[in-house]
Amino acid sequence: MANYTTSDIKDLRAKTGAGLMDVKKALEEAEGDFEKALEIIRLKGIKSLSKREGRSASAGLVLSSIADQGDGQVGVMVEVNSETDFVAKNEKFIDFANQVLAAAVESGANDLESLLSAPVEQGTVQDLVDSIASVIGEKIVVSKMVRLEAPVVTSYLHHSNPDLPPQVGVLVATDAAAAEVAHDVALHIAAYQPEYLSRESVPAEVVEKERHTLEELTRSEGKPEAALPKIVEGRLGGFFKENCLLDQPFAKDPKSTVGQIVDATKGQVLDFKRFHVGA
């Protein structure tokens, strides 16, 4: 029998995020040598990288960073995914995700492609992804990143499950005046999931497609043809109210819209981004 303890199994699982049976097999093969077992798991992971390409990585976490820059602030947010919640809450995976976030901040990356090619340690972020995947034994993906610059950027990270890292992340860009309500607006975005900032920011083709759908629906209900335009525009207002942040009823005071709450500060929400792990 190999010379290893329950503590060795626990430590190796914590260090690699590998499954119980994989850890035991590695320790058996290494005859209890911890470092050799670690290398066995790493090499096994490298060999299986291609096999994991078709698998789903829908667990994971969201992390963000806010820093002062010139006369304003810059906010960076990343989503890093694993296959299972077990890995998502593993300390090694969380440390890796923080390295990805740091690389996003330091490199000034503005999109996912430039982040993956950004330098970190002795290689790139993509090299780091491949390395951690080979050790952990799951498909690991950096799936999203965003960078917002504004006079003020506010971040909110939400734990959907107290046993897991943040699953929802929000960045809100405002001017200085609206900063006083930015945190509450970020909480609202996390809960209400708006798609767009305002009516004006909805792409024209999206509006036209929705209008066409509503016209067909209203006509199928037998409404008078002359009344169609007014009915459709009313229903289109409902679409905006559901999907546009500034039109939504404010979470903390549904009698007012988010836009009215922001207008009361005499400030503006300039932009926002929302990530939800796996979505």
From TrEMBL:
The keyword Secreted does not apply. InterPro entries: EF-Ts_dimer_sf, Transl_elong_EFTs/EF1B, Transl_elong_EFTs/EF1B_dimer, Transl_elong_Ts_CS, UBA-like_sf. One of its GO terms (molecular function) is translation elongation factor activity. Residues 84-87 are annotated as: Involved in Mg(2+) ion dislocation from EF-Tu. It comes from the Bacteria. Keywords: Cytoplasm, Elongation factor, Protein biosynthesis. Gene3D superfamilies: 1.10.286.20, DNA helicase RuvA subunit, C-terminal domain, Elongation factor Ts, dimerisation domain. The keyword Transmembrane does not apply. Signal peptide: none annotated. It is found in: Cytoplasm. GO terms for cellular component: cytoplasm. Residues 75-278 form the Translation elongation factor EFTs/EF1B dimerisation domain. Belongs to the EF-Ts family. Associates with the EF-Tu.GDP complex and induces the exchange of GDP to GTP. It remains bound to the aminoacyl-tRNA.EF-Tu.GTP complex up to the GTP hydrolysis stage on the ribosome. NCBIfam families: tsf (TIGR00116). This is Elongation factor Ts. It comes from Boudabousia liubingyangii. The lineage of its organism: Bacteria, Bacillati, Actinomycetota, Actinomycetes, Actinomycetales. The gene is tsf.
